[in-house]
Model the fold of this input.
Amino acid sequence: MRTNDFNSNSRKTVLVLIICSVVAIYVIQLFRLQVLSSNYKDRADSNAFLNRVQYPSRGLMRDRNDKLLVYNQPAYDVMIVMRETEKFDTLAFCRAVNIDIQYFRKRLSDIKNKNLNPGYSSYTAQVLLPQLGNKEYGILQESIYKFPGFYIQKRTIREYTYPNAGHVFGYIAEADKKDIEKDEYYKRGDYIGKTGLEKSYEPYLRGQKGIEILLRDAHGRIKGKFDDGKQDVTSTSGKDLTLSIDMDLQIYGETLMQNKLGTIIMIEPKTGEILCMVSSPGYDPASLVGRQFGTAYTALERDPYLPLLNRALNGAYPPGSTFKTAQALTFLQEGIIEPETKFACYHGFPLGGGHPGCHGHASPLALVPGIGNSCNSYFAWGLMNMLNSKKYKNIQESMDTWRDHMVAQGFGYRLGVDMPDEKRGLIPNSDYYNKIYKGRWNPFTVISISIGQGEVLLSPIQICNLATTIANRGYYYAPHVVKRIQDTPLDSIYTHPHYTGIDRQHYETVAEGMRWAVAGPGGTCHQANIPDIEVCGKTGTAQNAAKDHSIFMGFAPMNDPKVAVMVFVENGGFGATYAVPMGRLMIEKYLKGDVRDKNAETYLRNAKILRNVVPKV
Done:
C-alpha cells in the first residue's frame, strides 16, 4: 500500500512539474514577444501613429572671407511601410520616379534582407528610394495616393558653390552597418560624413533629428497630428563652420596643379590655419551627391591617378633636401656644429666615396651657404659627426637623440590636423635599425637619411609644418582647416603652441640659410625671388623609382612671416623645375592678390606631368 501511494505521489509530482514547465515556457515566450521584442509594439504603434522623422539641415561652410561654400537644397526620399502596401501599378510607379522595374525589385529585396538591413520591420517606414530630384518628386507627389504604403520624406542634400576643394569638404553617404552599430543616432537610410570635414566635424554638422507624430485611422489614412502636435520634437540644424581656407587661393592652386600629381599647402604661421589644401587630381564635390553617387564614386575609385586620395594628408614621401633644415637645427642644438663650421664637398661626400653625390659649388662651405646651396656633403658630415660623437655613450643613444629632435619638430607622428586619415610618416630610431641589420650598422649604413632619403618618410602637411615652425622660430600650432564653429570653441589643440625645444637663435641661422637659397650666390631657389618680398625657401628633389619628385617649401616675409607654403609635384624632377616657381606664384597671389609673371603662370598651368599608369578595371 505504501508503495502504491509512493508511485501515485511521484506521478502527481511529475505531472505538476510538467504543467508548471509548460506554463513557464508560455509566460517566458509571451514576455519575450510582448516586452522584449519590438515587433508587437511596432505593430500597435503603426496602427495608430506614423512617426515621421524631421531631418535637420546640415551646418553650412564658409571660407575665411565669408564666401558661402557648402549649403543645402531640399531632397525627397520615397519611404515604404511594407505591411501597408496593397496591389498597385508597379510600372506606373517606376515611371514616376524614373527607375527600371529590376532596380525596384532589388531595392525591395535589399530592404527585407536582415543581413543588409538588421533593423528591418514590416511595420516601420523604410527608405525605398533616396534623394529624388525636384522633377521626380513633382510627378510622384501628384500620384502618391495611388500607391498605398508609400509616402515622401523631406530632407536636404549638399550643394556647392564651386567645383573645387572636394578633398577638404569630403562627402556624405548612407550610414552603413558599422556606423549604425557605433552610434545609435543613425538608422538605416540616414546619411553620415565619410571623408574630409564632413567626417571629422560630423557631430557638429549633423544637428538633431525631430519627430512629427501623425494619427492614422483603421485604414492607415493620415487624420492629422497627434495631440495637436504638442508631442512633436522639432529638429535642430547643425552648426555652421567658418573655414580658414581662402577659396580664391584654393582655386588658383588647383589651376596650377591641373594635369599634375601632387599637392600645394599654405598655412598662416601665427595661427596654424590652413589657407589652401590642394590635392591633384581632385574631384568636383557635387559629383558625389544624390542618386548619381554610386556611378560617380565607382568612376573615381577606378581612376588610376587616385583622385579620391588626399595627397596632402594621406601621402607619405621622402622629403628630400627640405629635410636638411631639420638636420641643421638638430646639429646646432646638440652642439655638433656651429654656424661657422665648414665641411668639404667634392661633388659628393668624400668619406662615402662620393655618396651621396652633390652638384658643383664652392667648397668648403659653412652652414648658411650649405643650406642655400643645398650641399649634400655638408649634412652627411653633420650626421656622421653626431652618430660618432663621444657626447653619447654609443651610436644607439646618438641615433635616438636625433630621432627625439625630429619628433619634437613634428615628424613621425600625426600632427593632429582636423581632418581624417592623416599619415604619420616614418622617423627611424636605433631599434628600427637594430631589427633590420641585426645590430650591425654604422653611420655609413644610414647616411641617406641625412638628406631626407632612405627610411625617412613625411607627409606633405608635415613638410609645410616644418616651414611654419622655422617661420615662427621654434613653435607651431597644429594645422587646422576650421577657423570657427558656430557657438562652440575650437579644441585647445589648435590654440596652444607646440615648442620644439630648439633655441630661437638656431632658427634664425636656418632662416638666413633659406633666404640665401632664394637670393644668395649659388642658391637653389632663385625662381622663388619676389623683388619686394623677402622670401625664404628650400628646394627638395626626392629620389623615386620613376622620375624624381619636385619639392619646395618656404615662407614670407622673412622677418614677419604671414604665410608658409609647400609644393610637391610627383615626377616633376628637380625642385627648381616646377615646385619653386609654383611656390613663388602662390606666395605672390596670397600676399599681393595677383602675380606679375603671367608667362610663368601660363606655362605652369598648361604643363602636363602625368606618369603612365594602367587603368583599373
Observations:
- The mean pLDDT is 90.
- The CA atoms of residues 517 and 523 lie 4 Å apart.
- The radius of gyration is 32 Å.
- The domain at 247-300+311-606 is CATH 3.40.710.10 (Beta-lactamase).
